[in-house]
What we know:
The protein is mainly beta. Helix content is 9%, strand content 27%. It has 2 helices and 13 strands; from the N terminus they run E-E-E-E-E-E-E-E-H-E-E-H-E-E-E. It has helices at residues 103-112, 138-147; strands spanning 3-4, 33-36, 42-43, 55-59, 64-68, 74-77, 82-90, 93-100, 117-121, 135-137, 162-164, 179-182, 185-188. The protein has a 5-stranded antiparallel sheet. A hairpin with a 4-residue loop joins strand 4 (55-59) and strand 5 (64-68). The radius of gyration is 17 Å and the shape is globular. It starts with a strand and ends in a 27-residue tail after the last strand.
Amino acid sequence: VARIGVTPLKGTRMLHPAAVELTPLGIPGNRRFHLVNERGELFSCGDFGPLMRVGAAYDAATGTLALELPGGTRVEAGPDDLGGPHVTDFYGRPVPGRLVEGPAAAAISAYVGRPLRVVRADADGDGPDVHRLTLVSLASVEDLGVRHGRPDLSPGRFRMNLELDGCAPYEEDGWSGTAVRIGPAVIRVLGPVPRCVATTRDPASGAKDFDTLKA
């Protein structure tokens, strides 16, 4: 494992802790929160690239989500800010949660320029799009970049939980159905995770700079 990537609020800047716990639910706290628009629909960095510039941190012990926006604005939301229920459609899968009241939604809305709400998923592990844990090899990203004139292509744009070194390009594509050991944990690889338009954006700025989907 070369690098770990998580974020408590879907679509925001990825964090890279030195170690995490792996459970049957994936990485606890990963994508525990998400955004919805004024129609209650899922909203993420594919809709607004600069969302990737927002820093988010979650303290599981206190249940507090902290957001740091470009320009230095910092807001927090805790258990006392949880409001009414909301079910979000995650590409055909209903994810029940509760709306987060307080200043967090207002700060995000002001930054994005449209009304948004923050939702806390009721169950840990419900926030990722398809599978609860994702991985990609650095060799695959490097090969993709070289083939398309982008040798500097960052693996961070794929927003995967585990970036792996020591693999041949696309070796992980052949792991479907097999067991893989990661530290003391063993995971079973289920299959490919389709990538979305968010991967076309520079992970640092959120600007579109490479057509990964066509490549």
